[in-house]
Amino acid sequence: MSLKGKVALVTGSTSGIGLGIARALAAQGADLMLNGFGDAGMIEDLRAGLAKEFGVRALYSPADMSKPAQIAAMVAEAEAKLGAVDIQVNNAGIQFVANIEDFPAEKWDAIIAINLSAVFHGMKAAIPGMKKRGWGRIINIASAHGLVASPQKAAYVAAKHGVLGVTKVAAVETANFGITVNAICPGWVLTPLVEKQLEDKAKQQGTSVAQEEQAFLSEKQAMMKFTTAEQIGGLAVFLCSDAAATITGAPVSIDGGWVAQ
Ligand code: NAD
Q: Does residue 198 line the site of ligand 1, with CB under 6 A?
C-alpha cells in the first residue's frame, strides 16, 4: 500500500515505539511531523535521516504533550507547513511505579496529562481538518494496561483505560466522516521506558537485567518474547490501509498473549 501524499503526526517519535511507527509510515511514503524530547543534534539527525532514507518531507515539533496549547500549535504547524494531519498517532507516554500510598501526586498528574489528556487535546485539534477532508486515521497507543491492571501502576493503568474510553467516543463521533480511531495495546516492548523498569527491578532484587527480562515476560506474556517497535509500526500501517477502513473504536492487542490469560 502507499501512504504517499498523506501526512502523519506521531507524538513521542524520538524514541521507541513512536520512532518505529514513524519509520513504518515513512516507508509507505507518508510525510512526517515528528515530536518528542531528546538531544537536539540527535533529533536533527533523525529528522534528516528519515527524510533522506524514505524521500519524504519530515518536520520536528518540540511540543510538550503536557501542555494543551503546545499540542494545538503542533497540529496547526503540521497543517500549515505540510498541508494536513491525515494520520495522527498519539503515542508519547511516561511511566512511574509505586504503590498508591507512596505514589507522588505530581507523578499522577504528569502521567494523566501526557498519557491521557494529550490524546484528547491532540484529537480535538486534528479531527476538524480530517472531517473537512473526509479522511483520517487516528491511532492511540494504549497498552495491555488499558485492558487489565498490574500493581504499582495506578496512574498508568488509569490513563490507558481512559485512552480506550476516549478512543471509543472519538470513533463513534467520526464514524461517518471517513475517519477511523483505534487503540493499539502492546504488551512488553523493549524500549527505554521498559529498560528503566528492568534496571530498577534488577537493582532492587540484586539480579541481572537479563534475569529480569525473563521474569517480566514469564509473569505476563504467554509468548516469552518482546514485541518490536517495527512490528507495532507494521500494525499502524495496516490500520491506515483500506483493508482496515471499517475497524474503528477497537483496542487492538499486540501482546504475545498477555490479556488472553
Ligand atoms: P520511550 O520512552 O522509548 O518513548 C517515549 C517517547 O515519548 C519519547 O520520544 C519521549 O521523548 C516522548 N515524551 C515523553 N514525554 C513527553 C512529553 N511531555 N511531550 C512530548 N513527548 C514526550 O517509550 P515507549 O516504550 O516507546 O512508549 C511509547 C508509548 O507506548 C507510550 O504511550 C507507552 O505507554 C506505550 N507502551 C509501551 C510499552 C512498552 O512495553 N514499551 C507497552 C505498552 C504501551
A: no
What is the structure's pLDDT at 25? 98
The CATH number for 7-188+228-254, chosen from 3.40.630.30, 3.40.1360.10, 3.40.50.720, 2.102.10.10, is 3.40.50.720
> What 3-state DSSP class applies to 254?
strand
Please give the model's pTM, rounded to 2 decimal places.
0.98
Q: Mark the ranges of the chain whose per-residue pLDDT is less than 50.
A: none
Cβ–ligand 1 distance for 22 under 6 Å, the answer: no
**Res 1: pLDDT:** 64
CB 14 less than 6 A from any atom of ligand 1: yes
Task: Tell me, in angstroms, the distance from the centre of ligand 1 to residue 15's CA.
Answer: 7
**Nearest CA to 15 among 36, 33, 32, 31?**
36
- DSSP alpha helices (H): ranges in 96-191? 105-111, 118-133, 154-173
Share of the chain above pLDDT 70, in %: 100
CA of 35 to the centre of ligand 1 (A): 11
Could you tell which of 94, 160, 223, 235 is best to mutate to test the pocket of ligand 1, judged by most ligand atoms within 8 Å of the CB? 94
Please report, for the chain, the start and end positions of each structural domain, with discontinuous segments joined by +.
7-188+228-254, 190-226
Would strands 179-186 and 136-141 be described as parallel, antiparallel, or unpaired?
Answer: parallel
Ligand 1 centroid from CA 93, angstroms? 4
